[in-house]
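User: Hi! I'm working on a homework problem where we have to compare a predicted structure to a textbook description. Could you give me the structure for the chain below?
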Amino acid sequence: MKLQTVLLAATITFTAGCAGTGPNTQQGAVTGGLLGAIAGAVIGNNSGGGGHGAGGAVLGAVAGAAAGGALGNAEDHRQGTIYTSEGAATTRYIEREPPPPPPPPQRVEIIRERPAHDAEWIDGYWIYEGRGRYSWVEGHWEAPPRDHRHYVRPHWARHHDGYVYVRGYWRN
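Assistant: Happy to help. Predicted structure tokens:
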């Protein structure tokens, strides 16, 4: 199997597997997968056995995509809501009935000083991660994107196939 074929397969796999996540998560998974595939192929070719390059590329792609996706996901959460339309915030998660989120954590959110004059406080919320899993996102200050003033909280919306999960987003 040629390296170009492995890289193409890794790119398609990791791009498709990132549905429903933020753009940094997607970019991190794809970039990590590609860099991992290259590193794995080099290590596999240099292992002396010949023919290990493709296997090394696949293993490197998997490890790199997992690491890159995790780092990108952390960056998405750090940056906060980056979506500026309901269409961009709508995930590919489709459910017959929306799975109920767990109750909010039993702790008081501390609202620190506003970091910028235009920043708005976003209360903590559960973000749907797929397969009935949610992750808690702490409340935080967030500056709205240019020309966007109103924050729309994450929610489930009726769709022709059932319900889709819509991440929080800004609208004007």
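For your comparison, note the following. Residues 86-171 form one domain. The chain has four helices and nine strands. Good luck with the assignment!
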